Amino acid sequence: MERRDRLKGGRGNKKEKNKQNSRSEEWGRIIKENGVDMCCLEETKLEQLEDRFGFDIWSGKDFDWTWREAEGRSGGLISIWNRKAFEKTMVNGRWIVDNEDMVILNVYAPCGNAEKTHLWDMIKLVIEQNVEVKICVAGDFNSIREE
């Protein structure tokens, strides 16, 4: 799912940059007030992010992040974490304080049934390949429960 390991600066229009700044401020307030070590954001609808984005929402410099841009007017994922609490490796990471490996998947599911089935097959494969570690699947699954 991941396209980039680092945010790339871009030349968005002024309206898009203002929208990004106000979102960054709100996310930063929530993260700081709640002492968050890992944050997974879905449906950001952002096609570009400024290099300073992480600094805008994370207090201090001890953070890392990865993202995937939106496609048109939907989608977009951002995962950002405290480097003192979580260390990213190739597919998974390690909670430093507990010295515990973990796989964290930040998901924005498609709406179509065939695509959703494929996504769940991929998630199942990740789970089957990582039976020795804890797994957290976070995100927007574009699903509703029928009664």
Description:
- This protein has 147 residues and is α+β, with helices and mostly antiparallel strands.
- Helices cover 29% and strands 27% of the residues.
- The protein has helices spanning 14-34, 53-57, 113-129; strands at 38-42, 63-68, 77-82, 86-88, 93-95, 100-108, 134-140.
- 14% of the residues are buried.
- Residues 1-12 have low confidence and may be disordered.
How would you summarize this macromolecular structure in one to three sentences?
The chain has 147 residues and is an alpha+beta fold. Helices cover 29% and strands 27% of the residues.
Pairing-aware structural class of the strands and helices? alpha+beta
Give helix and strand order, one letter per element, not per position: HEHEEEEEHE
Total number of helices: 3
The description of the largest β-sheet is: 4 strands, mixed
Mean of residue pLDDT? Answer: 78
What's the alpha carbon Rg, rounded to whole Å? 16 Å
Helix content: 25-40%
Features:
single chain, 147 residues, alpha+beta, four-stranded mixed beta sheet, three-stranded antiparallel beta sheet, 7 strands, 29% helix
